[in-house]
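no rush on this but wanted to send it before i forget. theres a chain ive been looking at and ive put its sequence and its fold in token form underneath. i want to understand how the tokens follow from the sequence so walk me through it. thanks a lot i owe you, the record is right below:
>
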Amino acid sequence: MTTHRKSNRRQFVGGIAAGSAAFMLGHSEPAAGYTSANDRPVFATIGLRNQGVAITNKSTKFADFAALADVDSKVLGTNVEKLEQRQGKKPDSYSDYRRVLDRKDIDAVMIATPDHWHTKIAIEAMLAGKDVYCEKPLTLTIAEGKLIEQVVERTGRTFQVGTMQRTESGHRFLQAIALVRAGRIGTVKKVTCGIGGFGPSPVIPEAPVPAELDWETWLGPAPKVAYRALPEIRKGYGGGVPLYSNCHYAFRNWHAYSGGKLTDWGAHHVDIACWAIGASETGPSKITPLNYAFDVDYDKSGNPTVDDKYDIAISYNIQADMPGGVELLITNEGDNGILFEGTKGRFFVNRGKIVGKPVEDLADNPLPGGAIEEVYGGPVPENHTLNFIEAINAGKQPISDVWTHNRMLEICHLSNIAMRLDRALEWDPEKREVIGDKKANSFLARKNRKGYEINM
């Protein structure tokens, strides 16, 4: 596939109505901007547990998958077989993602590894001429976000972040933004993002590395540590792996690999909150941890004093002072979703519902025609992947671009830093640094382990 590129971070495309409608006809239809079912983009997925499988499965309608990569041979083998059944053609399989990037026939990669791997793979993919769809949260640190921005600018590649609430979830979040923009709650005063939380863990001992897992490569850029796990197996979503470990599903509970719920669900709800209040291109002036708790002790330098228990915060109420005097509260309490409060009313939205008097009033006073499309920037496509493909073909950035994602994710990263250091942080959104706090600024970047550096 040959596509003319132009790097413009202020541009994105919404759904192209004709292209979106064509997909309703079935799997063999061409993707938007393509002339035949045989002229479809060629994708590969790197990282296959949970979200990696989810984004692959919902993309086979629009793209052909030539390869899959994972450091767990069991996960890799299982999903190669499932994908072959799904698309009628067996994808190639690799334990080393770099073999995927070497393939000239692959147009784009979908990255769903643990967070600490995102930046290195994404940058290398763009430098190899691939467009990128990367799961959220995009980065482990604020500095990584800046690096990705630089490479998107340099290469002109299309880069979609997997904050699919911008496109999917029955358009409830788009409706929420449209309500705010239409003044249905007056002037916004407060937005509360309920993101849930992880519980504490027991002591997790060192354990033999599963035979199917390449632990060295799984760690990659992160510090070299022993594999830890307890025998109990997780059930339900993400199941089939140890319930307590420092790997696979449980990686979000460790600062070495992720940022807990703050960068997990926070990456979804804080994103919508910032979009609604018009703060997608700026940031907070201050982050204040009102109250919070860890299950492990932290030293004065902001580091956990033990390495055998989950070290992310297990409860929190964090206030971000946003432009226009809006208070953004991030909490583990209450229902998962977003509560918007203004001078004339309030309403709540999550993936399953949008409720409140301003929503009820729509029966007699509906939003203007095209309000949802105005928020999105055009017709809303069938799903997030389709927006990615349409953006590739238009040579533009998609609805979930790296700049707006990084701006809101900075709030989540700063919240974790504020809790680790036990103090409020004054933030300069222009310089993108903490004001007058050398220690806090030292947390904005992390050095990759030797052999896993990012080469640009």
The first helix runs from residue 17 to 22. The two ends are 25 Å apart (CA to CA).
